[in-house]
Structures are given as C-alpha cells and as structure tokens.
Design goal:
Pyridox_Oxase_N; 29% helix; 27% strand; Split_barrel_FMN-bd; Pnp Oxidase, Chain A; Pyridoxamine 5'-phosphate oxidase N-terminal domain-containing protein
Length: 230
C-alpha cells in the first residue's frame, strides 16, 4: 500500500542515504518531446532538509536532465530509489530541480557549505525542492547483491583532467561539454556552460537520434507549429 508525504520523513532518511543508486526522470514540455530516465550510481547524493535533496550529475554523452530543468516553465523531476536487499521498498521524490553547474560561484559555495567532495567529471549539483514523497511496496523488484561501484568513469575523467593540466588543450572539459552536453535529443539547450562555449567557439553538437527525429528536428518543427497557431 502506498503512503504519501509532503516532505521527506525522518524515518526514511537513513534508508535513502544507504542506497547505492537512484533513478532520475524528467521530460520536456513539448508533447512531442522524449521522456528521459537516468540511472545514477555512487555515493553522490544527500538530504539537506525535509524538502531539499541533491545529487551530483556526472559527465556523460547525454544531457537530458539539464535540458529539461533549464527549459523555461519546466523543472519537473522525480527521483526514485528501490530496495534490492532486505524488505521490499520503493521511494519516490517529486519536486522541481535546478542544476548548479560546475565552475560557478554557487557550485563552489554549495560543495563547501555541504561538505561535498567533488570529483573530475562532475558536471553539476542538481538541487531539488521536494513537494511530494511516496513509499510503496516494491514486491516485484528482484534481489541483487551489490558488488561495488564502477570506477571507470572517475578514472576516465581523472586522466582527462591530468592531460589537460599538462597542456593538452584537446582534453578540455569545456570542449567535451560543448560537443556532448550542448543539446538534448529534442534540440533543447543542455548544460549552459557547454552551450555557451559551443556558440562562442563554433562547436557543432553530437548527432543524436536517427531519421526524422535526428537532432531534435521533430521537436523544433512542433515548436514552430505551435508558435504559428498562437
């Protein structure tokens, strides 16, 4: 049976913080846009208060979460946790999210005040204003044994950062973000830092999707159609 709350109850806090991964769901406002679900692994999340939750967004080839949260009038987000051992349980946090991007004063202030250890490849802190929480049974979720966190992503960006600091300009994170974090699959601007660097330096975005949906063509056509009918 589902139980709902307006805030994160203190009774759920230890269980949430003990989880090894979470899932993040967002979507664009356009009815033609694509829903996104991203798995997040590692101890890179926390609870600040009953209505404030954060997780660190690590660099990857996609940028859907950023794009949806940056979209004017959007910011909708749902974070989900599941039990893979012990008693069955699913927890969902609904709210509005905001990316605090790496390289900004706000990012540096947040990690310092909240004692967050940042790592190479950290793209942002996603800060949630939580307005609903749900606990449900999870009776059909299977058991899995946790073997350990994958270290490949951290090692990859540690090497990339080291190479850049040694003078290899091509290993710049700004160039990487400009290429891969510039636009969403629907053509929405993604990471602000990557988008701005790309426009300033003429860097084309990574091709995403194939066919008529390639590079957000469908979403841009739908957006234009809605403007013409207003």
């Amino acid at each position: 049976m589902g139980v709902y709350y307006e805030t994160i109850p203190e009774s759920l806090r230890p269980w949430i913080l003990d989880q090894k991964m979470l899932w993040v769901a967002t979507a664009p406002l356009s009815p033609d846009g694509h829903i996104n679900i991203s798995p997040k692994g590692g101890p890179y999340f926390g609870i600040i208060s009953p209505t404030k939750f954060w997780f660190m967004d690590l660099t990857g080839s996609g940028v859907e979460t950023h794009a949806h949260l940056h979209e004017p009038g959007n910011a909708r987000i749902c974070v989900m946790f599941m039990a893979f051992e012990g008693a069955p349980r699913i927890i969902r946090l609904w709210g509005r999210g905001r990316p605090i991007e790496n390289g900004t004063e706000e990012y540096e202030k947040f990690v310092k005040e909240n004692h967050v250890t940042t790592i190479p490849g950290s793209r942002s802190i996603i800060l949630l204003d939580v307005h609903q929480v749900a606990s449900s049974c999870g009776f059909s979720v299977p058991f899995y044994d946790f073997k350990g966190y994958r270290t490949r992503l951290n090692e990859h960006f540690e090497k990339k950062e080291k190479a850049f600091l040694e003078g290899k300009e091509g290993e710049s994170m700004d160039k990487y973000w400009a290429y891969k974090s510039q636009l969403s699959v629907d053509g929405l601007p993604g990471m602000k830092r990557g988008y701005e660097y790309a426009k300033k330096n003429g860097i084309k975005p990574l091709d995403k999707f194939k066919g008529p949906l390639a590079n957000g063509l469908l979403n841009r056509k739908s957006a234009a159609k809605r403007v013409l009918t207003l």
